[in-house]
Amino acid sequence: MAAEGEEAFVGLGSNLGDRLAHLQLGVDSLARAPEVRVVAVSRVYETAPIGGPPQDAYLNAVVAIETTLAPHELLQACQQIEKLAARERAERWGPRTLDVDVLLLGGTQVDAPDLTIPHPRMWERGFVLAPLRDVAPDLVDANDTWEGVHEAGVSLKVPPVV
């Protein structure tokens, strides 16, 4: 990757199958993506689902990256990673093997039918804010707490830079 990239944050979530393995797949795949460098990975949080049908709890994390990808190129990379995890989009807010969301990309703002940056509703969701605070403490108030969000007691590995 080029040395001069934008700082970006990508949210990961899983509530089907081996949730931790799906999150690790997300981290590893981001690390292998062209023009992306993984800078930091948050702790893993277990969170209650919000909206949608009855479903199991999620594991969530946030990955801090540097990238030279344009917003839609980063979205495409995230969607490719979801495909690797056999993500099916059968139901809005339904269960998923892996959700990979572009949360923030530098100071970029996008409002397109297929992509909104900053991610809509991210500032209202503890499952995004708790892990985001781990990798970007200047963005989230240190005193904020969120109901239904707690550390999962498991961790993700940061892949070595190749």
Shape estimate = globular
Helix share of residues?
10-25%
Strand content: 25-35%
Number of helices: 3
Poorly predicted spans: none
What does this structure look like?
- The protein is α+β, with helices and mostly antiparallel strands and 162 residues long.
- The protein has helices spanning 19-32, 71-84, 126-135, and strands spanning 6-14, 36-41, 45-47, 58-67, 99-105, 110-112, 115-117, 149-151.
- Strands 1, 2, 3, 4, 5 and 8 form a six-stranded antiparallel beta sheet that branches.
- Strand 6 (110-112) and strand 7 (115-117) form a beta hairpin.
- Helix 1 packs across helix 2.
- The longest helix is centred in the N-terminal third of the chain and has 14 residues, at 19-32.
- The chain starts with 5 loop residues before the first strand and ends in an 11-residue tail after the last strand.
- 38% of the residues are buried.
Any key phrases for this structure?
alpha+beta; globular; 6-stranded antiparallel sheet; 162 residues
Write a brief structural summary.
The protein has 162 residues and is an alpha+beta fold. It is built from 3 helices and 8 strands, in the order βαβββαβββαβ. The longest helix has 14 residues.
How are the secondary structure elements laid out?
Elements: E1 6-14, H1 19-32, E2 36-41, E3 45-47, E4 58-67, H2 71-84, E5 99-105, E6 110-112, E7 115-117, H3 126-135, E8 149-151
Antiparallel strand pairs: 1-4, 1-5, 2-4, 3-4, 3-8, 6-7
Helix pairs in contact: 1-2
